[in-house]
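[Discussion] Sanity-checking designs against the backbone

I'm trying to build intuition for which residues belong where. Below is a structure token string of 380 positions. I'd appreciate it if someone posts a full sequence so I can compare it with mine line by line.
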């Protein structure tokens, strides 16, 4: 079954590390955007009639800027345009400051059953440095109220490797969240982009970046902590309690089809891939219908490599025979001698036609992939 992705390109404020395309949105009337989304969903539903879907994922941006009634309208439109499975996973990415009990009950009534909360840190100093609009107290309160709501699955996103972040408090924060019984944790290593405020501060020496080895050690300790508390490290950046893996994101990592709605959303159906134009103003002007699509004209060989890279993100790795079956001679597997040397270095495992990164390999995944596929894009 296909996955459905709905993009919400608004945020209350821009975080200092964020280089996404977005529009400041708190207090803004989002009804025109919701109407445009609903028309686009209807039009795409006509283009792919009768398609069955088993996931819907609201990402951004900050989708929790949408009221429960707006969200309900969009989910209703997804249900009418596609055959959404009764047990579909419906996920909302949310910021802590948007969540209270009433809002969460509204989201649950609209059909949301999975929430990921952008906690990022429980250190108020670091939250201010990242210009997050919430503090640690609000973050913990939002997780607690979400866990006491009817939502089936509650996850948190955290960032490691922030300048000035200390090992002890970072690990203690993860333990506190695990104690709140969260079902899923996404741990991201900070990526620094030169044009962001944080990137400029680092370039000008106003802040000192965390050393790469220190960040990798912190990541490893955080992974140990979560695995010790019953989480499965099922993907490079993601940990889940049994039964709580992201079904939607698994579609991206296992080369399955999806349709995206909203500016800059990507779609993949059959042999076609495309992205909606990212300009919000023109998306609103054309009311979500017939706005520009940018077709992805990468070769099948490149796509096969991307599928290999995506599969290597998973703990279980990737079946090379699947890629051969799907892409035929367009799939050129990595050099066996290179695989062998990396297996000897305990970075890769290859058995029964399945290639996977070892735990050590996952920690240095970018280096491994550069050696494995010298011209491929970076994994994380
Ligand atoms: S909430 Fe997310 S998308 Fe919005 S500015 Fe912050 S990092 Fe970027």
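Best answer:
Here's mine. Compare freely.
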């Amino acid at each position: 079954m296909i996955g459905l992705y709905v993009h919400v390109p608004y945020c209350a404020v821009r975080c200092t590390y964020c280089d996404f395309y977005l529009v400041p949105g708190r207090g803004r009337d989002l009804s025109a955007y919701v109407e445009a989304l609903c028309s686009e969903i209807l039009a795409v539903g006509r283009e792919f009639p009768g398609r069955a879907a088993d996931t819907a994922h609201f990402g951004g941006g900050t989708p929790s800027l949408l009221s429960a009634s707006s969200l309900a309208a969009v989910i209703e439109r997804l249900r009418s345009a596609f055959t959404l499975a009764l047990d579909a996973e419906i996920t909302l990415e949310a910021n802590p400051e948007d969540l209270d009990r009433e809002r969460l009950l509204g989201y649950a009534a609209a059909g949301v059953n999975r929430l990921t909360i952008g906690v990022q840190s429980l250190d108020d100093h670091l939250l201010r440095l990242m210009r997050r609009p919430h503090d640690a107290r609000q973050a913990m309160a939002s997780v607690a109220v979400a866990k006491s709501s009817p939502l089936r699955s509650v996850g948190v996103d955290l960032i490691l490797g922030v300048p000035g972040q200390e090992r002890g408090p970072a690990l203690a924060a993860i333990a506190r969240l695990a104690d709140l019984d969260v079902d899923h944790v996404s741990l991201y290593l900070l990526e620094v982009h030169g044009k962001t405020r944080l990137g400029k501060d680092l370039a000008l020496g106003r802040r000192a970046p965390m050393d790469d080895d220190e960040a990798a050690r912190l990541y490893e300790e955080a992974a140990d902590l979560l695995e010790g508390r019953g989480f499965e490290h099922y993907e490079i950046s993601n940990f889940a309690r049994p039964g709580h893996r992201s079904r939607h994101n698994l579609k991206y990592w296992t080369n399955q089809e999806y349709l995206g709605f909203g500016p800059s959303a990507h779609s993949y159906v059959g042999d076609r891939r495309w992205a909606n134009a990212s300009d919000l103003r023109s998306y609103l002007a054309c009311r979500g219908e017939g706005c520009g699509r940018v077709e992805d004209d990468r070769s099948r060989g490149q796509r096969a490599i991307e599928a290999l890279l995506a599969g290597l993100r998973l703990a279980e790795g990737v079946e090379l025979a699947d890629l051969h079956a799907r892409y035929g001679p367009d799939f050129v597997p990595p050099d066996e001698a290179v695989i062998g040397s990396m297996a000897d270095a305990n970075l890769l495992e290859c058995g029964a036609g399945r290639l996977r990164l070892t735990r050590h390999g996952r920690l240095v995944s970018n280096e491994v992939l550069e050696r494995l596929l010298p011209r491929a894009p970076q994994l994380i």
